[in-house]
Amino acid sequence: MTPTHLPGRLAIPSLPEQTRTPPSPDALEPFNTAGADEIRHTLLTCLNSPRWADRIAAHRPYPDVGSLLAASDEAAYDLTPGDLAEALAEETLPALPEGAYAAAHTALSAAYAAYESKFGHAFIICMDGLRATEALDQVLAGIRSRLANDPEEERVVAAEELRRLAKARLIHALRGAGNGATSPYGAAPGL
How far separated are the first and last CA of the chain, in Å rounded? Predict the structure, then answer.
């Protein structure tokens, strides 16, 4: 079902709640004890915002994973418009799943171009917890829906998607090889 846009309401597609369980408490020790440069690098792969990364790193050690994730959310909510623009500038477009039809590539390319033209940054959407088979439909529904937003409405939606992406990437980094100081992602992906 494609969401409709109602005047005065943000067009946001409904996505399933995150279904993954948080990393084990043991994953937090390497995060809490990693060197400042290592942890900053890891955090910047989760969200390319120096203010966000520095704020999270400065409050270590965290007593539990829930406290770290709450700090991530709070720091993301506190991003200034400049911080948000900086983080969005480093995001990449979500990739299509393997085996997607050429028509899907064409439709998505056109939708991405329209979005970037209107809002001046890459379309981002957090799809953590979605099956790969649902990704294309969710991206297309999301981008079409969000094209109806005005720039200020979309800034709010994009900030929320960045917050969700940062949290999902942080969880993944904590799980990665049991070491919170490295991220298997490398540069932060668009999904």
Answer: 21
